[in-house]
Design brief:
11 strands; eight-stranded mixed beta sheet; 2 domains
């Protein structure tokens, strides 16, 4: 039996209807030969393993307590048969039947391409503040829509991580592919969060390249309620501190500037999208809360090392209390 050239791999826990839609979209891909489908379940109680098997996935199971983003993806890489391993999250639904082919073609965009990723698109009905962030961030990665290749020049390989923070070092394994041979040299770090950002940094420093493919989109967005949104931002900026050394400014003037900038951008986007009247006002109010909590999460998350463990755990959406400092 020939080894498949591509594996699509997902970590799963209680994936619900989102997992069903994601696996259905993977199986509908126009790709020959069909990819291997590999699922790592960490204690689902909603029937997710049965959903995975019904879609033809090979299933591996781990205890809930042993799940961590970096180690679990290393396990999926070890178990996968493909030369290219394409990662999705359980609620990242490929947006077209050409998604997988577009993503895999990205490896041919240059020499030593180790990572390829595509954009997230907001699901219908998401708040303007959520939709705009995704649309504008990914549009900014490739303004001409032709894709993007990032690698470091030889004299940049030793740059401090803080100098590489931003689009050059962005990668997502909610919609991203990893070359097996490169991974054997540069695996995911054994960390609980932001393992994809750390992998991009490590791959670039090892002389590999990464590619962004605008055509390889998935539907993936989260309109979190307020407290969960704060906690998600806490985790994200905590990771920026841990991996890149970034600490968000706590100057109240800077906070106010960022909130005003975010709300203004959302209102402009909403008007361009046809919102007006009371509906526009409601979106603006939500935007104020969204960006205020975002900045609060950024400030506290990038200072997580100064918080007691019990408070770090409370602030974290993933309930993570331990520190990881690169």
């Amino acid at each position: 039996m020939n080894r498949p050239t591509v594996t699509v791999a997902l970590p799963v826990r209680d994936g619900g209807a989102g997992l069903e839609a994601t696996l259905h979209a993977v199986r509908a891909q126009e790709f020959d030969p069909p990819p291997e489908l590999l699922v790592c379940d960490s204690g689902s109680s909603d029937g997710s393993p049965e959903v995975a098997r019904r879609h033809g996935a090979r299933l591996i199971s781990i205890p809930p307590a042993s799940f961590a983003h970096g180690p679990t993806r290393n396990l999926l890489m070890q178990e996968a048969h493909g030369d290219k391993v394409v990662f999705l999250s359980q609620d990242a639904q490929p947006d077209s039947r050409g998604w997988l082919a577009a993503l895999v073609r990205g490896f041919a965009a240059g020499e030593r391409v180790a990572l390829v990723y595509g954009p997230y698109r907001p699901r219908p009905g998401e708040p303007v503040c959520v939709a705009r962030e995704l649309v504008e961030w990914f549009a900014g990665l490739s303004p001409d829509g032709r894709g993007r290749l990032d690698r470091l020049d030889p004299d940049e390989l030793g740059l401090p991580a803080a100098k590489l923070l931003g689009p050059r070092c962005f990668f997502t394994d909610a919609n991203g592919a990893v070359d097996r041979a490169a991974w054997q040299r540069v695996p995911f770090r054994g960390i609980a969060y932001a393992e994809d950002q750390a992998l991009a940094l490590d791959m670039l420093r090892a002389g590999f390249a990464k590619v962004y493919v605008p055509a390889a989109a998935v539907l993936h967005s989260h309109g979190y309620p307020p407290l969960a949104h704060y906690r998600r931002c806490f985790d994200e900026w905590r990771a920026l501190r841990e991996i890149f050394g970034h600490r968000e400014s706590a100057d109240p003037r800077r906070l106010l500037y960022e909130v005003r900038r975010g709300v203004s951008g959302d209102v402009r986007y909403a008007r361009r999208s046809g919102w007006d009247g009371a509906a526009l006002a409601a979106q603006a109010r939500r935007s104020v809360v969204h960006h205020t909590l975002r900045q609060a999460g950024a400030i506290t998350g990038s200072r997580a090392d100064r918080l007691p463990p019990w408070l770090r755990r409370w602030c974290s959406l993933e309930g993570r209390r331990e520190l990881y400092l690169a």
